[in-house]
Design goal:
Shape: rod-shaped
Oligomer: single chain
Low-confidence stretches: none
CATH topology of the largest domain: BirA Bifunctional Protein, domain 2
Helix content: 40-55%
Largest sheet: 7 strands, mixed
Bound molecules: 3,4-dihydroxyphenylalanine
Radius of gyration: 42 Å
Mean pLDDT: 92
Strand content: 15-25%
Strand order of the largest sheet: 1-5-6-10-9-8-7
Length: about 350
Amino acid sequence: MSAEIFDKAKGILEAIKSAVPKTAEEIEQFRIQYIGTKGSIKGLFGEIRNVANERKKEYGQLVNSVKQAAEEKFTALKEAAEAQADATVEQIDLSVHGEPLSLGSRHPVSITMNRIIDIFQRIGFVVAEDREIEDDWHNFTAMNTPEDHPARDMQDTFYLMNDPSRLLRTHTSSVQARVMTSQKPPIRIIAPGRVYRNETISARSHCQFHQVEGLYIDENVSFADMKQTLFYYAKEMYGSTRIRLRPSYFPFTEPSAEMDVYWGLNNETDYRITKGTGWLEILGCGMVDPNVLENCGIDSKKYSGFAWGMGIERQAMLQYRISDIRYLFENDVRFLSQFKSAF
Ligand code: DAH
């Protein structure tokens, strides 16, 4: 009987020695199996009562050595596992270069548009945005553009094929109609956005481009107010203190004008850009035609206002000396990544 009990204890000792638990889970399993309160060593101690008296001491020593072997192995395994875990953390090489994360850059049209918005926001204009797919009324009729006006021609305007009463807006002036029919004066808005025209694409013109519209309506708004506002813009945007207003015609303004900014004639590029005059035409403007106010439900006897519209691409091209408008729509990163801005 005693011999069997001794064999069992020796068998467990062998099993402990040859066990190779690796993961934290296996090590814990090892502890439960041998050292735990329900483990096999506990059982071995219990067997002592079945051992012949003269061998009890010997058995006790054997089981103690089994217990010690199990505990030592467990401690060693645990320490090794912890060291391993530490080593894994330490293996991270903090000096290794990170993956280069290339930041995008703003599109030159966005930069220019944001500069324009910023300039007008500083004097109290708020941004108004509206749809690019417009109806005929807001784009043309409300803006005093008669049925037979050439701008309405299919040649110039993209109409929706399945609904010819709708079109891609040809100018941001449509936002004037949207704002005037939904807000009461005083109105002081700028409307930046994309517009579309059925034009042959070339270095100078595209079928899609951007404009910023401006509209100011209140009591007693005068042509002088408009002139001062646009003069301020020329100063902020171009650092120019010379502007000139040339009489022009737009259906929605009366009187109408085109504004030039003095750019200068210091080098060959200036001659080319300004066609030798030193002046740059940058926008169309005028006093809002009373018909437009009435079309939109605003009393033209009480209120007056001024409006303007300017292209963004042309101004971006001037500022960055971009020679071909098509660069602005091709999304070539070699081109786009050259632009950096705080805006
Ligand atoms: N809508 C005109 C265009 O696209 C620009 C324009 C001219 C807008 C005069 C205006 C304005 O508001 O008063 O060419």
